[in-house]
TrEMBL record:
<dbReference type="InterPro" id="IPR035914">
    <property type="entry name" value="Sperma_CUB_dom_sf"/>
</dbReference>
<keyword id="KW-1015">Disulfide bond</keyword>
<keyword id="KW-0732">Signal</keyword>
<dbReference type="InterPro" id="IPR003366">
    <property type="entry name" value="CUB-like_dom"/>
</dbReference>
<feature type="signal peptide">
    <location>
        <begin position="1"/>
        <end position="17"/>
    </location>
</feature>
<feature type="domain" description="CUB">
    <location>
        <begin position="22"/>
        <end position="88"/>
    </location>
</feature>
<dbReference type="InterPro" id="IPR000859">
    <property type="entry name" value="CUB_dom"/>
</dbReference>
<dbReference type="Pfam" id="PF02408">
    <property type="entry name" value="CUB_2"/>
</dbReference>
<protein>
    <submittedName>
        <fullName>CUB domain-containing protein</fullName>
    </submittedName>
</protein>
């Protein structure tokens, strides 16, 4: 009897040392949603991940009924094992990183976890929690076919309706790990039981379209971690000829650089930035003659075209781009335009020979009661400045005044005031 017990104990110890062997499992929610599902079932998150046996293949199919979503945290410690993956409801399969415990969110109807490992042992466990969507927290956005609307994470479920299709553009989040954006879901038709289209990580690679004229977004408590624009929605027709559309947030850390990166080698691309501060652009290191960069404010309409930059690029930078929504559109090639932290860093106020300066009120073509704009430009006291200026557009039927004051060594050497009463382009002279 003692020998048999000793033999059984040896088998158990050997199996534990070799790691678990998994089987194909289909799992439904626990009857009590407050009770998580753990794998292995004896494992808990305060433990090290459980070792698995080498040379095996298995999967877990986890069902997510209507009205629920699943939060999953993976605990993986391997030698960068590439055979451990998960599959979203839309069929997208993603690699599960080692030591990445940022949650995944999965929606109706199911998701799958796959384990296919070779002869190296590793550790892998996970925890699943099913939850109900909160009641009565909805926000509705109607798109007019021209304008774009941006959103930060909120506790509300957002339904977007377009004239044609809804286009959702994802934004970078440089101040937090990109993996946090997994805590989001984008649905067809504006309902949580609609077809899963992706999440905000997917939207960082390129825009997501609805197949109908409705789309829904939920961000699962992401507002606790991020207070920046994470997506923008617009009617598909409002994007014009853009094929690749992304959004950029600059880091809040002043020691980190920022730039507008446009990859138009295969298709027309655009990048959007959104803030109540201007973008101060500086001269790119490389600007091929074949590239045409167009910059728009608020919409892609010609009336909102801020600047067209091509072979004239040497005279166009630095550039101060206004409006809350700035759209950078490129038709070909690769281009990175540095974004300075402020006017001083960009040397915006310094004049050099041949420089072309665009000055525009911040809310041009938008209703605003604070459109007054003041700019000061300087040059070395030993240099003589010759300049001409042209009032190109007024977005209201006046009266609008332009005051020009020129100083030398603190003494006014020229003062003039011009008054305009119409929206027509008006040249006002050469000084």
């Amino acid at each position: 009897m003692v020998s048999i017990l000793f033999f059984l104990a040896t088998l158990v110890a050997s199996a534990f040392a070799d790691g678990y062997t998994c089987a194909n499992i289909m799992r439904n929610p626990t009857q009590n949603l407050s009770e998580p599902y753990y794998y292995p079932e004896t494992w808990r998150e305060n433990m090290e991940p459980t070792k698995y046996a080498p040379n095996q293949i298995c999967n877990w199919q986890i069902n997510v009924p209507e009205g629920l979503y699943a939060t999953v945290i993976f605990y993986k410690k391997t030698d960068s094992e590439s055979g451990i993956k998960c599959t979203y409801p839309n069929g997208e399969q993603v690699y599960i990183e080692d030591n990445d415990q940022n949650p995944y969110k999965f929606t109706y109807p199911r998701f799958q976890i796959d384990l296919q490992v070779g002869d190296k042992q590793g550790e892998f466990s996970f925890k699943v929690v099913w939850s109900e969507y909160p009641d009565g927290r909805s926000m509705y956005i109607g798109l007019d076919g021209v304008h774009s609307i941006a959103s930060v994470p909120t506790s509300y479920y957002t339904t977007v309706t377009a004239v044609n299709q809804v286009m959702l553009v994802g934004f970078s989040v440089p101040d937090v790990p990109l993996a946090l954006l997994r805590q989001s879901a984008i649905y067809e038709g504006g309902y949580t039981n609609g077809t899963y289209l992706g999440n905000l990580v997917n939207a960082r690679s390129g825009q997501i379209y609805s197949t109908s004229n409705k789309l829904g977004v939920y961000t699962f408590g992401l507002e606790k971690f991020i207070n920046q624009t994470v997506f923008m929605v617009l009617d598909s027709r409002a994007a014009g000829d853009i094929v690749q559309y992304t959004g950029t947030n600059c880091p809040t850390d002043p020691n980190k650089s920022c730039g507008i990166f446009l990859n138009s080698q295969k298709n027309v691309s655009a990048v959007a930035t959104i803030s109540r501060q201007p973008d101060y652009l500086t001269l790119p290191k490389g600007f091929a003659n074949s590239i045409t960069l167009k910059i728009y404010g608020e919409t892609m309409e010609e009336s909102n075209l801020f600047a067209t930059i091509n072979s004239n690029y040497q005279s166009m930078f630095p550039l101060r781009v206004t409006n809350s929504l700035k759209i950078y559109h490129s038709d070909t090639g690769l281009l990175t335009v540095p974004v300075a932290k402020n006017a001083d860093a960009a040397k915006w106020n310094s004049v050099f020979d041949g420089r072309y300066i665009i000055v525009r009120s911040f809310d041009f073509n938008r209703q605003s009661y604070a459109q007054d704009t003041t700019e000061t430009f300087v040059t070395d006291p030993n240099n003589q400045m010759y300049f001409k200026f042209n009032v190109k557009y007024l977005d209201t039927n006046g009266p609008t005044t332009l005051d020009v004051n020129v100083y030398k060594n603190g003494v006014a050497v020229f003062t003039a005031t011009y008054v305009f009463h119409s929206k027509k382009s008006i040249g006002v002279g050469l000084l």
